[in-house]
């Protein structure tokens, strides 16, 4: 009897083991769910088999999310192409920077590349009054999608011209320091303003190009730019553009307008008939109202800056000495030149380029545009319709209708 019970236990145990093995084998043969575009990873050392694009992807398997581990949500939106179609213009970005600016310009490059240049791959020219070091070149070249070029500014373009009275210039700097005028005591700032006013477009590296986009350290772009701005400028016959405009510090340019009137008296042929004098003056040109385009952002035509008209204008101002005896900035210099020498319709306001340079923001007026172009700026920060801005004046002298919703930003 005991032997029969022992054999019966063996038989029951064997049956249980067979049932257990059956379930284990069944569970291991469950097929893997394939998402659209899914490709199974091969074992190390085995070649992967590319998916056949002619065959439809396996349908997605429905899962109860509450019973599965979190997973990445498939993205059915196609990313924009790395390079936009169409021919490129003969254009470049240009930046005046020093080696110590490397991380600040790196931020600017990322904004420009992410919002615009990764689609177009334009070159970038970097200029410095000293040699660029390896770190600056390595960091910036890794960020720019186009070619990078590095140039040293000739000493004669970054020094006092021979006709400047050094003692007089030093005395002016001391007086401006006491009055706490911004950059009033800075020699390097004056060299920068003079260089941007009259020489950057003459650098050998810049002679290869017809169009430029000026970018400074620590700027930000807040909206996607999905078209070629250089091509737009050429097709619309524009020669100068801006995103921000404002009044210049009166203390920095007390005689700039006198020097300008001296120029127009001797070179009347350089003054355009349908110009933007009303943007610059409230009394027909007798006095300057100090409005100017903020030149830390510019997209412009280099051939215009190299023209006889502009070169004559800069040379006249340079010999007047105001870059050193006062503190003339390149912004009012460029603005006065554009306002007097270009036709009104050759100057363009880029409402659609959202831009920041401390302390001012241009955030495009128009909610739908901001939504469509993934803008990250707060419209309440927009400077355009602020009382210290000159952009409303630009609209008025050109007979342009202000963007819808501008009233809410005043």
Automatic annotation (TrEMBL):
<dbReference type="Pfam" id="PF01793">
    <property type="entry name" value="Glyco_transf_15"/>
</dbReference>
<keyword id="KW-0328">Glycosyltransferase</keyword>
<dbReference type="InterPro" id="IPR002685">
    <property type="entry name" value="Glyco_trans_15"/>
</dbReference>
<feature type="compositionally biased region" description="Polar residues">
    <location>
        <begin position="39"/>
        <end position="54"/>
    </location>
</feature>
<dbReference type="GO" id="GO:0016020">
    <property type="term" value="C:membrane"/>
</dbReference>
<feature type="compositionally biased region" description="Polar residues">
    <location>
        <begin position="64"/>
        <end position="74"/>
    </location>
</feature>
<keyword id="KW-0812">Transmembrane</keyword>
<feature type="region of interest" description="Disordered">
    <location>
        <begin position="35"/>
        <end position="86"/>
    </location>
</feature>
<protein>
    <submittedName>
        <fullName>Alpha 1,2-mannosyltransferase 2.4.1</fullName>
    </submittedName>
</protein>
<feature type="transmembrane region" description="Helical">
    <location>
        <begin position="7"/>
        <end position="25"/>
    </location>
</feature>
<dbReference type="GO" id="GO:0000032">
    <property type="term" value="P:cell wall mannoprotein biosynthetic process"/>
</dbReference>
<dbReference type="GO" id="GO:0006487">
    <property type="term" value="P:protein N-linked glycosylation"/>
</dbReference>
<dbReference type="GO" id="GO:0006493">
    <property type="term" value="P:protein O-linked glycosylation"/>
</dbReference>
<dbReference type="GO" id="GO:0005794">
    <property type="term" value="C:Golgi apparatus"/>
</dbReference>
<feature type="active site" description="Nucleophile">
    <location>
        <position position="298"/>
    </location>
</feature>
<comment type="similarity">
    <text>Belongs to the glycosyltransferase 15 family.</text>
</comment>
<keyword id="KW-0808">Transferase</keyword>
<keyword id="KW-0472">Membrane</keyword>
<dbReference type="GO" id="GO:0000026">
    <property type="term" value="F:alpha-1,2-mannosyltransferase activity"/>
</dbReference>
<dbReference type="InterPro" id="IPR029044">
    <property type="entry name" value="Nucleotide-diphossugar_trans"/>
</dbReference>
<keyword id="KW-1133">Transmembrane helix</keyword>
């Amino acid at each position: 009897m005991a032997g029969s019970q022992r054999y019966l236990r063996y038989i029951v145990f064997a049956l249980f083991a067979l049932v257990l093995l059956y379930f284990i084998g069944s569970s291991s043969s469950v097929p893997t769910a394939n998402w659209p575009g899914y490709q199974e990873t091969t074992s190390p050392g085995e070649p992967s088999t590319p998916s056949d694009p002619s065959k439809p992807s396996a349908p997605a398997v429905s899962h109860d999310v509450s019973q599965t581990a979190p997973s990445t949500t498939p993205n059915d939106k196609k990313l924009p192409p790395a390079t936009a179609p169409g021919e490129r213009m003969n254009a470049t970005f240009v930046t005046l920077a020093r080696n110590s600016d490397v991380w600040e310009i790196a931020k600017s490059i990322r904004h420009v590349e992410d919002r615009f240049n990764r689609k177009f791959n334009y070159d970038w020219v970097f200029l410095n009054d000293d040699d660029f070091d390896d770190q600056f070149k390595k960091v910036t070249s890794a960020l720019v999608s186009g070619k990078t070029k590095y140039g040293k500014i000739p000493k004669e373009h970054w020094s006092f011209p021979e006709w400047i009275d050094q003692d007089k210039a030093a005395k002016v700097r001391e007086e401006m320091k006491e009055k706490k005028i911004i950059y009033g005591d800075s020699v390097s700032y004056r060299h920068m303003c003079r260089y941007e006013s009259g020489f950057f477009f003459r650098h050998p590296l810049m002679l290869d190009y017809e169009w430029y986009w000026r970018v400074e350290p620590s700027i930000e772009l807040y909206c996607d730019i999905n078209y070629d701005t250089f091509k737009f400028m050429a097709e619309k016959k524009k020669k100068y553009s801006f995103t921000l405009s404002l009044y210049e510090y009166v203390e920095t340019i007390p005689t700039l307008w006198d020097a300008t009137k001296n120029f127009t008296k001797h070179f009347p042929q350089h003054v355009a008939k349908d110009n933007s004098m009303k943007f610059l003056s409230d009394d027909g040109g007798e006095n300057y109202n100090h409005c100017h385009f903020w030149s830390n952002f510019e997209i412009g035509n280099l051939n215009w800056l190299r023209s006889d008209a502009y070169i004559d204008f800069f040379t006249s101002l340079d010999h007047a000495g105001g870059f050193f005896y006062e503190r003339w900035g390149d912004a009012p210099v460029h603005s006065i030149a554009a306002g007097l020498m270009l036709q009104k319709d050759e100057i363009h306001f880029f409402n659609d380029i959202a831009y920041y340079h401390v302390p001012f923001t241009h955030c495009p007026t128009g909610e739908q545009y901001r939504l469509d172009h993934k803008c990250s700026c707060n419209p309440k920060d927009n400077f355009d319709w602020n009382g210290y801005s000159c952009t409303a004046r630009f609209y008025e002298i050109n007979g342009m209708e202000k963007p819808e919703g501008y009233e809410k930003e005043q």
